[in-house]
Amino acid sequence: MSSASKGLDKAELRQFYRNSGVIYLYVQPKNEEFLENHEMPMELDAVALRLMSLKNQLRYHNPEYSESVQELVKITEELYQNCLKPEHKRPPRYKKQAVVISGSGMDFLSEQSYPPGMELLCHISFPEYPYTMIDVEAKVVKCEELHGSHRYKTAISFHKISERIRDHIIQFVNSLTRQQRTKDLK
User: Fold this and answer.
1) Are residues 13 and 103 in the same domain?
2) Contact, 102 vs 16, CB < 8 A?
3) Which of 8, 25, 77, 85 could form a disulfide with 97 if both were Cys (CB 3.0 to 4.6 A apart)?
4) Which helix (H) or strand (E) holds 16?
5) Is residue 21 domain-shared with residue 70, that is, in the same domain?
6) pLDDT for 152
7) Are 88 and 99 found together in one domain?
8) Pairing between strand 95-102 and 129-145?
9) Are strands 129-145 and 18-29 parallel, antiparallel or unpaired?
10) Domain check: are 83 and 172 in the same one?
11) What is the mean pLDDT of the chain?
């Protein structure tokens, strides 16, 4: 235990322990006008995200997965696209995103600048838990442009977060730690 963490009780450690990982993320400003003008229901994004997660899991667990599994994934994706109304056809909003995450907030790169204090709604799906999708409210702590790249390092703190949602996040952080320890032992 580091000297910085010695003064924290177990609940504080749970909230502030962080790790780097990859999630599927969609961030939107939390204002009523934006929420009312969605052109595609979030449920359809969830289906598309599950398809992407399934494909990635199959490749991860068996890089040379069979042609029949590849064909099944392809047919499922085509079926999904054919069931969409024409105005809903577009890639899902969620993007695969590298983050530093804890039970109290996260850092991520964004193509959009958010002013400090702005309230956001974050839609998160964890690759290790492809059917676990959470929505959490957050406030922008800081947002800095990366050397003229039009990309922004954004830090947010979660607020109005339930313990159930925090538990999902902490499960993910702990799974990242286990994966890193396993790699270190090899």
Assistant:
1) yes
2) yes
3) 25
4) helix 10-16
5) no
6) 94
7) no
8) unpaired
9) unpaired
10) no
11) 76
**Counted domains in the chain:** 2
Which residue range(s) make up the domain with 70? 41-92
Q: Are residues 151 and 100 in the same domain?
A: yes
- Backbone dihedral angles phi then psi of residue 66, each to the nearest 5 degrees: -60, 160
> How confident is residue 172, by pLDDT bands cut at 50, 70 and 90?
confident
CATH number of the structural domain spanning residue 106: 2.40.10.220
Most confident of 49-53, 58-62, 75-79: 75-79
Instruction: List beta partners, residue 106.
Output: 101, 156
Domain termination site, one of 52, 67, 92:
92
From first CA to last CA, the distance across the chain in angstroms is 23
Tokens for 52, please give them.
Answer: 């992407």
Instruction: Read off the pLDDT of residues 79-138 as tens digits, 9 standing for 90 and up.
Output: 766 676 666 556 667 788 899 999 999 999 999 999 999 999 998 888 765 567 888 999
**Is the pLDDT score of 34 beyond 60?**
no
Place of tokens 């996040």: 169
Out of 72, 92, 112, a domain closes at: 92
64-92 pLDDT, tens digit each = 666 767 777 777 777 766 676 666 556 66
State which amino acid sits at residue 65.
Answer: Y
Contact 55, 73 (CB under 8 A): yes
- Please choose, from the candidates 56, 26, 29, the residue with its C-alpha nearest in 3D space to the C-alpha of residue 42: 26
